[in-house]
């Protein structure tokens, strides 16, 4: 690896070639997944969306968009395009089979309350196609067709996704996942979440026809009608292209019988007798489920839409409530990502609110519609008719009924509680270890060395994302000694305390051999985490250790180092545990490989391959060690003290599993050289060569002016 590789590494960090940690993954490009994807992308998040099929599903299913959903789609910027391929249905009717209208709901009653006082009749795939057109142009969106999610695993603040058939880049990592993969959701199943509820004895038959029913039933036939009848109940509705009728089918009939041309014609003729046969353009028969997942959140996976709940289609609420889920899920995730809301709180609140909406609003209403439409008790039917006509006369009740069926009530409950409760629990401050883990998941991390507060500030000012504290530089700066095992835990902890106080970057600490045996290593983890270490590294040299680039090193037995790694993993709160092996220069590559595998097996998060390795060796090492977050489990040293130019080019090394690289001693070398030259100049010329400008620059690094200003404000009694 050469110095000229570094810009390439920084580019890789921002745009890694594979195994990047996505912010949010979505399974399913149905209406729910697509709404979630567009909303997240518009909020600036990185989104990856998986769809099992080779394109969008064109299945004829949902065709009614309620006003509450139209309001959300307006915010997404898709409502106009949807109107262009939709029909406004301001009226819906409850009718007797005879044709008599029991009650008529005129949604213009909601004028003033919503810009959309009507149902919009449009196929659900119109919405998914419009959204796809937008997502395709967004740089922060990755769309993957032919990519069925097979299973997911919950990680610590992330999700691992496996696709059917296995892919090169698996597991795919994301901080969050929204499962929108339909009622059979493999995501839900792989998380072991129960899908509780019932399947109706009835199946439903849906038939679409080119016939214009208004010619027979009159121009006042609404675009949506619910037909009440003990046996031949059903729904008649208009989509932009066709009329669609829905009938119940008993379990006495097979699907073949139901779908036969004679049977379908007979059903249509019973609904509306006419002299000529119906031209049927689409038919489907399906089982009807009323089910809900036992929870809508598992770790950072949220279930939405049919993956979370399904209900009978009477009232047209399945997709609409799914769109509401998608909205709420994105609100929660966005609040965690951008406003410091606690992730567990957000996921729990989402689950509670949307499960309540699905069970107590949507399913309850859909079940009531089903019971009312097929009521066979004469007295009960008469009472229902009375209630409907009473509602017709009561404007207040009618408006309330319309708010409910437009799904405003359930959506407003969700949004209201999110507004009040979502921000109530803030996430605890993020530890250095969590920050470092997250960075490792996002791409290669390149750290420069620091040995005191000023050099740490300079690492941050230069734009590095992490600080590395090498034992060698601390040994030199604190004791004036070479890297031969002079410094102990006390000196290192003090240096780290000063450094972590001076920078917000994660600080990764070279903990030498652990300063003794297993017990001392445990104490080192405790002390170094106390002073803010984000990562702690131990090596397998025999104490007193010597610089990794020197000859004559000796190693402890593998078992002793394994024990140190295990105790470090057990003791740490969140720090990343790094196991360094110096075996390449002592036992050769085979020894290094065996040790690396053993240390990874013991729980090390990263394996530090000290010494010079070829690309093939790095690849073999990567394959021998457990996959950590981000899939790059190796750390290498680019130190000027060794021959790092012999390492493979950076991009290849990265693909071979290198995720953490350090330039540990550049700072101490630069400081020594600069100080030496300046002092020579002083001695020979009487002047250092530095002046006021240099001092100004230096004090700016220390934020001197900012602090003086603050002191003045405080003295003047300002906050
Ligand atoms: C006849 C009928 C009429 C209906 N009418 C209405 C209505 O008018 N209004 C209404 O609100 N609701 C209605 N519904 C319900 C509505 O269709 C569903 O609630 C809605 O489709 C749910 O959307 P979804 O995105 O959650 O799931 P889906 O639409 O089922 O989409 C899931 C997507 O995930 C994909 N997928 C599946 N498995 C995987 C996997 N492993 N990995 C990746 N992708 C996967 C699928 O291919 C699909 O594209 C109706 C349903 C039926 C059957």
UniProtKB/TrEMBL annotation:
Residues 23-362 form the FAD-binding domain. It holds the Pfam family FAD_binding_3. The lineage of its organism: Bacteria, Bacillati, Actinomycetota, Actinomycetes, Propionibacteriales. One of its GO terms (molecular function) is oxo-acid-lyase activity. This is FAD-binding domain-containing protein.
């Amino acid at each position: 690896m050469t110095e000229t590789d570094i810009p390439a590494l920084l580019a890789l960090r921002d745009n890694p070639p594979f195994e990047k940690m996505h912010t949010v993954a979505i399974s399913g490009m149905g209406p729910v997944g697509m709404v979630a994807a567009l909303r997240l992308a518009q909020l600036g998040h990185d989104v990856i969306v998986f769809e099992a099929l080779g394109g969008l599903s064109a299945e004829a299913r949902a065709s009614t968009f309620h006003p509450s959903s139209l309001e959300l789609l307006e915010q997404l910027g898709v409502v106009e395009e949807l109107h262009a391929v939709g029909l406004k249905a301001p009226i819906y009717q409850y009718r007797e089979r005879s044709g008599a209208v029991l009650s008529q709901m005129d949604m213009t009653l909601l004028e003033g309350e919503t810009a959309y006082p009507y149902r919009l009749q449009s196929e659900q795939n119109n919405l998914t196609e419009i959204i796809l057109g937008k997502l395709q142009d967004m740089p922060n969106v990755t769309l993957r067709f032919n990519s069925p999610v097979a299973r997911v695993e919950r990680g610590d603040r992330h999700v691992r996704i496996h696709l059917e058939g296995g892919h090169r880049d698996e597991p795919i990592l994301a901080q969050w996942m929204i499962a929108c993969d339909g009622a059979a959701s493999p995501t839900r199943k792989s998380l072991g979440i129960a899908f509780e509820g019932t399947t109706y004895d009835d199946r439903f038959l849906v038939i679409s026809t080119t016939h214009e029913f208004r010619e027979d039933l009159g121009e006042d036939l609404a675009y949506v009608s619910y037909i009440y009848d003990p046996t031949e109940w059903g729904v008649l509705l208009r989509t932009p292209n066709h009329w669609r009728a829905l009938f119940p089918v008993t379990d006495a009939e097979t699907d073949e019988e139901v779908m036969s041309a004679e049977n379908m014609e007979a059903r249509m003729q019973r609904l509306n007798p006419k002299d000529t046969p119906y031209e049927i353009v689409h038919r489907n028969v399906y089982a009807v489920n009323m089910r809900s997942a036992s929870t809508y959140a598992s770790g950072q996976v949220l279930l939405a839409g049919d993956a979370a709940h399904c209900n009978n289609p009477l009232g047209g609420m399945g997709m609409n409530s799914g769109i509401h889920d998608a909205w709420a899920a994105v609100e929660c995730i966005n609040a965690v990502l951008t406003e410091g809301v606690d992730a567990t709180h957000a996921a729990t609140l989402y689950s509670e609110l949307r499960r309540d909406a699905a069970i107590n609003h949507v399913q309850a209403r859909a079940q009531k519609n089903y019971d009312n439409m097929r009521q066979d008790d004469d007295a009960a039917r008469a009472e229902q008719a009375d209630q409907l006509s009473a509602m017709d006369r009561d404007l207040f009740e009618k408006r309330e009924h319309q708010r409910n069926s437009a799904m405003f009530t359930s959506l407003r409950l969700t949004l209201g509680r999110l507004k009040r409760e979502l921000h109530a629990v803030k996430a605890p401050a993020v530890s250095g270890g969590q920050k470092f883990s997250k960075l490792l998941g996002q791409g290669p991390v390149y750290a420069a060395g620091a040995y005191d507060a000023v050099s740490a500030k300079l690492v941050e000012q230069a734009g590095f994302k992490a600080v590395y504290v090498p034992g060698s530089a601390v040994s030199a700066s604190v004791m004036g000694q070479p890297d031969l095992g002079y410094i102990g835990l006390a000196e290192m902890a003090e240096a780290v305390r000063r450094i972590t106080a001076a920078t917000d970057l994660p600080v990764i600490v070279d903990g030498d051999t652990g300063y003794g045996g297993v017990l001392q290593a445990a104490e080192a983890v405790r002390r170094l985490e106390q002073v803010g270490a984000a990562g702690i590294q131990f090596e397998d040299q025999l104490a007193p250790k010597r610089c990794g680039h020197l000859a004559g090193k000796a190693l402890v037995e593998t078992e002793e180092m394994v024990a140190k790694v295990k105790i470090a993993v057990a003791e740490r709160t969140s720090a990343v545990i790094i196991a360094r092996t110096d075996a390449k220069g002592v036992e050769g590559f085979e020894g290094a490989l065996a040790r690396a595998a053993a240390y990874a097996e013991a729980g090390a998060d990263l394996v530090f391959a000290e010494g010079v390795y070829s690309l093939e060796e790095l690849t073999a090492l990567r394959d021998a060690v457990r996959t950590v977050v981000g899939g790059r489990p190796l750390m290498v040293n680019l130190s000027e003290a060794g021959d790092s130019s012999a390492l493979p080019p950076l991009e290849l090394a990265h693909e071979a599993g290198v995720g953490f690289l350090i330039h540990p001693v550049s700072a101490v070398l630069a400081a020594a050289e600069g100080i030496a030259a300046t002092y020579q100049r002083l001695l020979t010329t009487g002047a250092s060569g530095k002046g006021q400008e240099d001092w100004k620059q230096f004090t700016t690094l220390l934020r001197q002016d900012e602090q003086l200003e603050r002191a003045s404000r405080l003295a003047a009694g300002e906050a």
